[in-house]
Design brief:
This protein is of the alpha/beta class. The protein has six helices and nine strands. It has a five-stranded parallel sheet with strand order 4-3-7-8-9, sandwiched between helices. Strands 1-2 form a two-stranded antiparallel sheet. Strands 5-6 form a two-stranded antiparallel sheet. α1 packs across α3 and α3 crosses α4. It starts with a helix and ends in a 7-residue tail after the last strand. Belongs to the purine/pyrimidine phosphoribosyltransferase family. One of its GO terms (biological process) is adenine salvage. GO terms for molecular function: adenine phosphoribosyltransferase activity. It catalyses: AMP + diphosphate = 5-phospho-alpha-D-ribose 1-diphosphate + adenine. Pathway: Purine metabolism; AMP biosynthesis via salvage pathway; AMP from adenine: step 1/1.
């Protein structure tokens, strides 16, 4: 990539970051919610987000984009269409009709589960997992386990935002998977 391309990418990333908003104390006190809805209201920043992911993955022979419910559904299908891959939704329990394969995982305050249709992924598929944000990495690790159990090779996880303080990147690294993120989380100073 040339210097001009790097400057162009940096400008797009700056635009994406400025289109995001932080909502303090949502959904509960002490949480700094990273809101992507303002990004979706900015057509240029939204397009730049998709384009940066497409540019990264268009020559990586990705055959599956797996989007994590629900915000992975916003970015994943557009990336899949642009690179010629199928889109596989990873859903919360009891949201998919028919036979599913599931993966339970532990959250900070309980547990959750991801499901996908049996047969949605084939052995040897090269998969990219997409979500809006990585915090602790628990959901992404569950998604990787689910896809790998079905025979896919997880190439990378891709998120718009990373909350580095929660060390999700380190958790993925311990599973041997790289992470690509466009921006780090923004924090509003407490008053």
């Amino acid at each position: 990539m040339s210097t001009g391309d790097n400057q162009h990418s940096a400008g797009r990333i700056t635009g994406i970051k400025s289109a995001l908003r932080v909502i303090p104390n949502f959904p509960k006190p002490g949480i700094m919610f990273q809101d992507i809805t303002t990004l979706l209201l900015d057509p240029k920043a939204f397009k730049d987000t998709i384009d940066l992911f497409v540019e990264r993955y268009k020559h990586e022979h990705i055959s599956v984009i797996a989007g994590i419910e629900a915000r992975g559904f916003i970015f994943g299908p557009s990336i899949a269409l642009a690179i010629g891959a199928k889109f596989v939704p990873l859903r919360k329990p009891k949201k998919l009709p028919g036979e599913v394969i599931s993966e339970k995982y532990i959250l900070e305050y309980g547990s959750d589960c991801l499901e996908m249709h049996v047969g949605a992924v084939e052995s040897g598929d090269r998969a990219l997992i997409v979500d809006d944000l990585i915090a602790t990495g628990g959901t992404l690790c569950a998604a990787m386990n689910l896809l790998e159990r079905a025979g896919a090779v997880v190439v990378e996880c891709a998120c718009v935002i990373e909350v580095p303080e929660l060390k999700g990147r380190e958790r993925l690294k311990s599973h041997g998977k790289p992470l690509y993120v466009l921006v780090e989380s923004q924090f509003v100073p407490s008053s």
